Amino acid sequence: MEQRTEKICTKCGRILQEDENFCSNCGTPAPQPQSAESSQNQNAQPLEQKKSGFKMLLIILVVILGGAMLCCLFGDSEDTEPTEQVQVETEESEKMSALELYQTIQDGSSVSFAITGKAHMFLQEHDNLFPAKTKEDISADLVDTSITYKHIFKNDDKYGDKMMVLSNVRVNQIFEQSIGNGEYITELNVMDDNFQPYWVFYHGTLDNTFEDDYVDIVGLPLSSGSFENTKKEDTLVVVLAGSYVVPGNTLGSFTASAMETASQPVQPVKQDGIDNYLGEWYITDYGMPEIGENGETISSGTTLSIYKEGNQYKLDMAALYHSTAFVGVDGLVLNVSGNLATTSYEEDGWNNCGDITLEFTNGELYVTATAIQMSDPYYGDAYNLAADHMHCTRVG
């Protein structure tokens, strides 16, 4: 349908004819004609622009709000993650040092003991040795193989600056206690050949060790102690912090490694005289006694005294014991040659005769004693017995 075109004077409002170019009323130039459709479009355009602008505004608002929500969401996630990590790290208990661990054991154990001052310092300075991963981790200068049960009970405050060695001891009891975080303390109640008991606390598990097994142990003497036995009586023990535990008779000796030996200057053997060894000594290591056919064993130690009378060096030696006593002698004259002193005895009060050899070098004293039983009222037959290379410690 054709749309009608109208001209209206923009000044007086008179409707003009199509061919009029000027208003006949006021002379104003006639405007360009517009169709109704054009007019409607012009009138409708502002409304459409308003609608379009409103839509655009809505889109912008949605984008802004959506972005804000995403920022909040991811912002919260980033802020929370470190907090959760910190909480995990905070809740996870820190690993105790060796000193802290054994102080905790001391306070809560059924075995009564008090860590000595020297042991306290050793645990602090050698935290990595409790436990040691291998024997090679333990330097030879940190071990004193001459320390025994009797040393600790005589005066435990003097010890704890070096570790001791228990060789081929029997496991009477063994059990594990959880200390959390998947870690354990293994407790061993062991006894040596002289029926002297030790209580060992080892940080970790010993999966292949059981009751009645025999083990070698390197441990730090913490102190003497005691626990109540099944008879409601106190059993005295030496308490150790276990460093290294292996099956019996597999440990070997503690000597400086080849690298350590190479880095140290070679020390000449000092052939010092017997005068440096005068005084009283206590046998602390019985060596490897040769046992007679009747199964005799050395079950207790002894003391000996080296002294000088005039130009002679002499030896007094209290008795060693197996099934009966032997080598209980006084005033034996020593024949000194280099770093050896030898003597013989014909009667020691128990129908024994034999030889004694003292070996002294670089401050160390060793004794070898033999005994020949001339007549035994119990066994009848004579026997030969030797206690070889027994290590001695100076008294006092």
Brief rundown of the structure:
With 396 residues, this protein is an alpha+beta fold. The protein is built from 5 helices and 19 strands.
H/E series? EEEHHEHHEEEEEHEEEEEEEEEE
Low-confidence stretches: 35-48, 76-92, 256-263, 287-300
Shape: rod-shaped
Average of the residue pLDDT scores? 77
Strand order of the largest sheet: 10-11-12-15-16-17-18-19
Span of the ends, CA to CA: 136 Å
Major pleated sheet: 8 strands, antiparallel, barrel
The total count of helices amounts to 5
- Helix-strand makeup class: alpha+beta
Task: Give the percentage of residues in beta strands.
Answer: 35-45%
| Strand runs, count | 19
What proportion of the residues is helical, as a percent range? 10-25%
**How many whole angstroms does the radius of gyration measure?**
49 Å
Describe the structure.
The structure is a single chain. With 396 residues, the protein is α+β, with helices and mostly antiparallel strands. It is 22% helix and 36% strand. The strands form 4 sheets. It has an 8-stranded antiparallel barrel with strand order 10-11-12-15-16-17-18-19. The protein has a 5-stranded mixed beta barrel with strand order 5-6-7-9-8. Strands 2-1-3 form a 3-stranded antiparallel beta sheet. Strand 15 (329-337) and strand 16 form a beta hairpin. The radius of gyration is 49 Å and the shape is rod-shaped.
Which secondary structure elements does this structure contain, and how are they paired or packed?
Layout: E1 5-8, E2 15-16, E3 34-35, H1 36-91, H2 98-108, E4 112-113, H3 117-125, H4 149-154, E5 164-180, E6 183-191, E7 197-203, E8 214-228, E9 234-247, H5 258-263, E10 279-285, E11 303-309, E12 312-317, E13 320-321, E14 325-326, E15 329-337, E16 340-345, E17 352-361, E18 364-373, E19 384-394
Parallel strand pairs: 7-9
Antiparallel strand pairs: 1-2, 1-3, 4-8, 5-6, 5-8, 6-7, 8-9, 10-11, 10-19, 11-12, 12-15, 13-14, 15-16, 16-17, 17-18, 18-19
